[in-house]
Amino acid sequence: MDNLSVNNLSVKNYKPLTELVLEELRKAIFEGRLEPGERLRQQELARMLGVSRTPVREALQKLENEGLVANHSRKGFVVRRFRLEDIRETLVVRRLLEPKAVELAVPNITEADLEEAERIQRTMERLAEEGPYDELPALNREFHHLIFKACGNERLFNLIKSLWDSYPRCGFSVFKAHSGRSFEEHRAILKAIRERNAELAAELSAEHLENSVQALIEHFSTLTDEEQA
């Protein structure tokens, strides 16, 4: 937990301080810098981030609402441990939303969007061969969200984003183990979108989601009961 920072302010970035703290803490949780079960002391986090306790407290409360941290009466805030049931429950909702977003995106997505998605896909395939592998999950998220955003329904896109943000992301070791199949599915989805076949693109997206989540469930199933507690 020694490498937290919100020193990413720029002329183009006028986000509230609480939002910057929230983004940094969320990223640290997903990257494993803040580990499941780790106690989150507000004063220590404020010192490390170079901010007051107020934005830290507000950010932790938002993370609690997202399901990423828990607030215990004695310990205070701790990084929440994910359960298999969390994954299964989230899958039910994602199954309803993501294929629909892809279906709606097909008539709206631009050539520039498709070229960018293909560029991201090529980058992922290169990294899967050469490394660094730890960049794969973030690129995978960028690939899918580029397509989802083209759905033209901001509320739907934000719902999907919130589910991804409250979801235990697949670590790069898990992602790499299934990257061959995943990349084939990505290419099939892009092909269907290029052909403006909305129904097929939605079906392929649903199948890809099922396979990806199943890989994550298999990974979590190998953890000890203590790790899943």
What does this structure look like?
This protein is mainly alpha-helical. The chain has two domains: 17-79, Winged helix-like DNA-binding domain superfamily/Winged helix DNA-binding domain (Arc Repressor Mutant, subunit A, Orthogonal Bundle), CATH 1.10.10.10; 84-228, Four Helix Bundle (Hemerythrin (Met), subunit A). 68% of the residues lie in helices and 3% in strands. The chain has eleven helices and two strands; from the N terminus they run H-H-H-E-E-H-H-H-H-H-H-H-H. The chain has helices at 17-31, 42-49, 53-66, 84-105, 111-130, 136-149, 154-165, 172-177, 179-194, 198-221, 225-228, and strands at 69-72, 76-79. It has a two-stranded antiparallel sheet with strand order 1-2. The longest helix has 24 residues, at 198-221. Mean pLDDT is 85; it is low at 8-12 and 224-229.
